[in-house]
Amino acid sequence: MHLSKSLRIATFVGAAVVGAIILVARLTLADQPANQQVAARGATSYMPVAQTEPFGKLVARMKRAKAGLEKEHQQLLAARYDLSNHAAAGVTMFRGKPIQEGPRAKLAKGTTWESLAAMSPADIRAKNLFPQGFMPLPHPHHAEGGMLFPHLQIDEIRKQEGRDLARFDLDFDLPDQFLPEFPPPIFLTTRPDLGDVSQGKVVTLANFMAMFDGILNPKQLEGLRLLLTAFPQQQFNQTEDRRTEVASRGVACFDCHVNGHTNGATHLVGDMRPQEFRHRIDTPSLRGVNIQKIFASQRAMTSVEDFTEFEQRAAYFDGDPVIATKKGVNILERGSQVHFMAEVQKLFDFPPAPKLRFDGKLDPRLASQSEMRGQTLFFGKAQCATCHPAPYYTDGLMHNLRAERFYDMKLVNGEMMGADGPIKTFPLRGIKESPPYLHDGRLLTLEDTVEFFNLMLETNLNKEEKRDLVAFMRAL
Fold first, then answer.
1. pTM for the full model?
2. For the chain, which has fewer Cβ within 10 Å, the N-terminal or C-terminal residue?
3. Helix, strand, coil in percent for the chain, rounding step 5
4. Based on the number of CB atoms within 10 Å of its own CB, is 67 exposed (0-12), middle (13-18) or buried (19 or more)?
5. Which domain holds residue 365?
6. Range list of β-strands (E), 166-323
7. Closest CA to 442 of 104, 194, 216
8. Mean pLDDT of all residues in the chain?
9. Among 325, 345, 365, where does a domain finish?
């Protein structure tokens, strides 16, 4: 009897303590704006499997919310960046698309890039002067996430295949002038004599045989077919918790990596939780995969075969195997399908760089004085070559820039402005062809990139040095 009473008292006290902890947690979250709350640690990262809301009501609800979400996100972009169309004179991508110039990240009133670079990271943080455009870039609806495609890709796939990559709840956010040219050229390591083999077209299931028969062998053609084949994905599938009005066949690898390059499509990394800490992904180019040692911006997968096999199991479904099973995960066979797809990816080459020698350095007979000065800076004062050595301008490693030295953590439009952590070193060969920059696309131009790293590395470059460095990178 005495023991039973003690147990009841202990149970009551324990329940009271738990209740107090929950109450404190709720009060802590209540102090934050309603749309700026971070999920409590231990909250499940699994999505609900059952779709209980009728699909028609889900579509209507999300369509009503779309304009408000887009307005909020566009206000964030406008506050961070100058989004005007201002092209550099005489500089284009391979097929003629103009390249945007100038740093587009906005500075606090009364601040210049020179005055900012003269300050310490601690001072910049204390005075809240770090450019907002240099902080993590949220997804257009970070709480929702998912794959989003530029309208040019949506229109072309709809025209060629009758497959719709448009979502009813969200649209892509960045203006066309800050994206790679469309369609991008295709260069093959096996046939450099052919130059661009794209014929000015977007390669799809409808035309790949006509474009590549006689250039690729049968095994490679099969790998290319698989890269062009749509398979179910989180937002694009047959279930009623999809984000397309009509049931979808899914997405293909080349819906983001169009022509073995990139169209700037965005997503959220599937490897971290809670949602507020997930990073936006800017689709990287597949050019130069054959010389890379690390795949995915943070997962550090050590072969393109691993990446190819697990991308559709993991990233396609936000790292949730239960939802993947429900929506129709595509399990690739390692010995043939994965091997074929990986082999094709390793064929995509960087664009020609006529001013570079075999060692990746400039030929002084062809380069301008500005480009030559930029090269000296790149391998010297600017410290770029620490992580980006010639000839392909990557060290094949991961590095943590610790950008969080410059700002306080806070929630912005659903994403925590926190630490990026280690990020792979992307190759800089052909870099002018692949805007926007950094793993989440937060840097819109090469000038933004130079200003960002001038702060990160505390190199105190002057205006002329920055111009020369940009000129050099445009020649890579």
1. 0.91
2. N
3. 40, 10, 50
4. exposed
5. 79-139+354-474
6. 266-268, 280-282
7. 104
8. 92
9. 345
